[in-house]
Amino acid sequence: MQLRWLALALGLSLPLVFQATSRAETIPSIDQRFDENCTEVPDFQRHLLPMMSKIGCNGRSCHGSFQGRGGFQLSLFGYDFNMDHKGLTERIDTEDPLESYALHKATNIEEHEGGERIVKDSWQYHVFLKWIESGAAGAEKPHKLTRLEVTPSEIVFKKSGQSESVNVVAVWEDGTREDVTPLCRFQSNDTSIAEVDENGKITAASVGDSHVVVFYDNGIYAIPVIQPVSDQVGEKYPQVATPTRVDELVVEKLRKLGVVQSDVCTDEEFLRRVSLDISGTLPTPEQVLAFVKDTNPDKRSAKIDELLETPAYSAWWATRLNDMTGNTVNQLNNVSYDNNKVAQEWFEWVRLRVERNVPYDKIVEGIVLASSQKEDETYEEYSARMSESFLDKSCQTFAEQDSLPYFWARRNFQNDEDRAIGFAYTFLGIRIQCAQCHKHPFDQWTQEDFVQFQPVFNRTRYSQNGTNREEYQKLLASIDVDDTLRGNQLRRELAKELKKGKTVPFPVLVDTAPRRNNRRNAKANEQTARMLGGEPFNLNEFDNPREPLMEWLRTDVQDLFARAFVNRVWSNYFHRGIVEPTDDLSKANPPSNAALLDHLTQGFIASGFDMKWLHREICNSRTYQLSWQPNDTNIHDERNFGRAVPRRIHAEVALDAIAQATSASDKNASYQTQLDGRAIAIPGSAQGRGGNNYALTIFGKSARENNCDCERSTEPTLLQTLYLNNDNELLSSIESRRGWLDELAREWKVAAPSKGNADRPKNYEEVIARYEKYLEKVKKQGDAKKIKEVKNRLQAYREKYGDPDGDSNASQTAEVDAVDYEEAVQTAYLRTLSRLPSESELATGTEAVRSAETPVVGMRDLLWALLNTKEFIVNH
Amino acid sequence: MALHRTCDGARRRDFLKVGALGLSGLSLGNYLNLTQAGEIRSGAKAKSAIFINLPGGPTHMDTFDMKPDAPSEYRGEFNPIDTNVSGIQICEHLPNLAKVMDKFVILRGVSHTLAAHRLGSEYINTGNRPLPALEFPGYGAVVSKELPTRPELPPFVSIPNTAQRPGYLGVQYAPLHTGATPRAGQKFSVRGLELRNGLTISDVERRTNLRRDLDQTFLQFEKNNDLLRGLDRFSQQAYDMITSPQARDAFDVSQESPEFAKMFGESPFGQSCLLATRLIDNGVRFVSISTGGWDTHRDNWNNLKTRLLPPFDESLAALFAGLEQKGLLEETVVLVSGEFGRTPKINNERVGRDHYPRAMFMLMAGGGISGGRVIGASDEKAMGPLNEAITPDDVAASFYHALGIDHQKEYHTSTGRPVMIVRDGHVLPELFS
């Protein structure tokens, strides 16, 4: 042990050691204190439980199992002091400590399935024995751990095989300081970078960076461990441009690692990347050409500003916010009279706010503190308002109202536990579900924290029958429906009345009053609750229990609240979050660059939660604008943003990109401004268990069911490739009668590719004639709606099999040599890969067109080939 | 690559190491105990599976769990008939199935409490009672994860679609939806595989060559990037599937001999069964068929005898016979189920029966399950299980058991929560005796 002190004294963090000794005396470590002659009484919480935890007693495969082992159960990962104390004291003998059953088991004198966990006469043995001898006190009043002081606080290795030991001091609320190194559990977050043994000795395994995490009591500390990948560190690091604060902070970390950033990407690459990232939309060929030609030195920054003003931006980010808040049709039963309508209102409400750049905290407030009924509104007036806005197909009436109550109406957000988990996931990016059943193994949360957080959600419910039963009945009685109907049958009848313009009762979000004692005018009962990490308070002092919740987001956990969002936004612009997974902001899962995340978080708060500030801060950085082409130093590093890492484009974005790339020119130009039919503007999840959009499903659009950011997937799969290769949807998109290829065919005066001719029914002409005859007939009847319907059907049939304008006589023998295929090939590149082809690509492409059966067939093949390149489906 | 840590403290990499031993995270002692208790059987017979879903919830009392002696307000108008197994009777409108009763098992008194279509459907399609905040993977997703298949075929095909989703297992286990059912005697093509719009193999080859010529941007860099390498691998696999006749032929029921195809009938369900047989024969691991219309609140008997039962009877009997003829029945486990049964008491006003999860039937066949038996029973009015209920979880555990998949194996959801494949079920030992 002396050696360790020596090692420490010589170690890297001398200042911290001195700092430590200058304060209260630190109790030396337990392995030096306990032997036969020791008179100290070990503490249940501070010594015994951490020791048992360290030797594995309360692990999941041992007594921490929910079934126990050998009839003995301990709380998983500790922290249920009463249960653990009770279980242990049943197995010891304070009269005759040496004959204690638990001691015999642990030393394997009594046969123990877990083998010998404690060696006789070891310090562990004496701790256990002394505890029993001293009367085996529990932890009636638990101590509160203030912090863990870990030295060194960061480790930089020079080469693999080097080792360094850490020392951990626990600082308790009463000022007690104790060296707890032998009682800590240690874990490496990436064993390929560094290994750690049970004594806290860390050994470098390979170059790169990760963390070693220290666990003691409910304290968690992550030590950064770095081994530079090159000798270009510190002063040897090359001069690099760091035009923004983001770049400075990224490079500060890279300088330690010896990673040099790649060069800045080309204008074409930048434009494609930033358009896909900000607006979920490909740039048009015209935009690409204009951007490349533009000589304004600030053109990138100007482009970012421009994109943030597009309707596509508001749709795409509304989609991302809808992912987080869980807008999915399946979970919205009985909220209104049409689930799809609810999802659409939800989407529009968020979209409108993104468009107006309402601060993020204000948007959240509109959700967390939502109310259905306005303050001065009766239930009947509320129902009348909702009945009217139900008929508004655009959903703008709904979107303009202050509140979005539907978050609270989700079927998977009804009981207190699901709400506690869902709320923490959505707004704080943390996973507290582990603490539902046991101490969180990777975060500070205990089961008690979870249990005391739950009541906050208890009084809020979505009521089918209004705020007041009588008002509801009165309203119902005023409508002409069979009053014996119940449930779904009633709802169906009411839905019919609603569509006729009647006012029908609407469900409302209500906060029930706190329970009171029986006596009149009695004060409400106390309901103690505690926000995560907060102090207990009486929830019943609040008429609206959601007020302290929102207040908490704005104050105590404001940093985490902002951080969770910042990290998720960052992950939209890179291949990963600064913390990854993005919804696991736990202490044991630290950011790859803490200073960077801090800067963005503080900046975001200081900006007043201005989302556009955040987008600009990220996109204007050089780091965001790096090339994907690696150099020797950054080729293996994907944690520290030394280059752009290619990522598959998101499901909605991919389908829109396919549609846009193959569409006619006027349509192609409208994608950033027109949201009709765009996948990025689909409310709800669009892949419900009922409805199904095959392509969106296989490309991994979020199902929004499980409180996990991982529900949105950008992993490649075989079905995706089959879709791009050969799915009829994709092929039809290329060959659509309203598509670009058809436009080219007309321009070149050649036949469009033979879409219809093979599939065209033999009686095509007959059917057309029949339709036309029928159209004449309805025209005579003068029913405008019917006429329109028949016209549409005729048009659809023609589009499917024939020519929309009857122009089927284009000649294949026209002078095709005169046509400039090169221009078409270039446009194909611009439409798909958002760049001009290289000379050899242009030659290959043009040759393919020229040598094909017909030039349009050649263009079809080229378009297909480009849509199937990796370059198309990844953002790079 | 960052390690995913799991809720119970195991890091995923550790977990995989244990999994690689084939013990699925059980300790060895634990495993041996279970083996002795007959819970885990190494010699599972089934290699593939067919799940037939009957959305809407077919009535048990008018099909496989008849109560001819029940009072008239329960009984219904159909009569039971004998089957080729003495002592077992089923509905008179199932004459073909009666002739092959020895091939399958009827589970009676299957029982749960979820009377809504979607919840019930999630339950029987996953074998886990739905939780609002966790989506369980459907059977097909689990089977395609557990039992690898030939690369040139999709492991999980649904005809025409399915309520089974990959859930927490992730998109790579999503099914290929055929989107349509085959039509008798006609060439059947499936999305993504069939050459449409007049395309020929040489067109595909020409295009693919062109793509290869042009797809050079990331050249040299692919080997260092999982995404790019993955995309390349899938491209090759997709190309093989599209250009080799194998995959396409697997879907093309028109290639079956006319007399074989004939027994399945011409109904969409019959053609689905024919396709399922063919896919299994070609090596697809899991096929689900969905054939709806069973929500007979109104006009129950008329609907059953005219519209629902005849094609169901004809085709399911043909499926059992067809699998047997091809020598596939022994290695293919078949499960047939709706989301619930229907009220034993007749809704006279609408001449129908309503949702009723407390008593329902399921059918199982193949995969080492010897047929010709009834397992479980409902009470005299088919109101609930007679003795101990069979739960959908038990059926799921048994279904996986037939495939040699340990239903207690634990996965970790992406938030790190450990979840067993089937959380509450027990293998029904009678099925395998």
Describe this structure as you would to a colleague.
The complex is a heterodimer of chains A (876) and B (433). Chain A is α+β, with helices and mostly antiparallel strands and 876 residues long. Helices cover 43% and strands 8% of the residues of chain A. Chain A has 37 helices and 17 strands. In chain A, the strands form 6 sheets. Chain A has a 4-stranded mixed beta sheet with strand order 1-6-5-2, covered by helices on one side. In chain A, strands 3-11-10-7 form a 4-stranded mixed beta sheet. In chain A, strands 4-9-8 form a 3-stranded antiparallel beta sheet. Chain A is globular and about 105 Å long. Residues 1-22, 687-691 and 804-816 of chain A have low confidence and may be disordered. Chain B has 433 residues and is α/β, with parallel strands linked by helices. Chain B is built from 13 helices and 14 strands. Chain B has helices spanning 12-20, 28-36, 72-75, 95-99, 117-126, 139-146, 201-214, 226-243, 245-251, 258-262, 268-282, 300-325, 392-402, and strands spanning 48-53, 80-82, 89-91, 104-110, 156-159, 176-177, 286-290, 332-337, 341-342, 355-356, 360-365, 373-375, 410-412, 418-420. In chain B, the strands form 4 sheets. Chain B has an 8-stranded mixed beta sheet with strand order 6-5-7-1-8-11-4-12, sandwiched between helices. A two-stranded antiparallel ribbon of chain B has the order 2-3. In chain B, strand 13 and strand 14 (418-420) form a beta hairpin. In chain B, helix 9 (245-251) runs antiparallel to helix 11 and helix 11 runs parallel beside helix 12. At the A-B interface, helix 17, strand 16, helix 27, helix 28 and helix 29 of A face helix 5, strand 6, helix 7 and helix 8 of B.
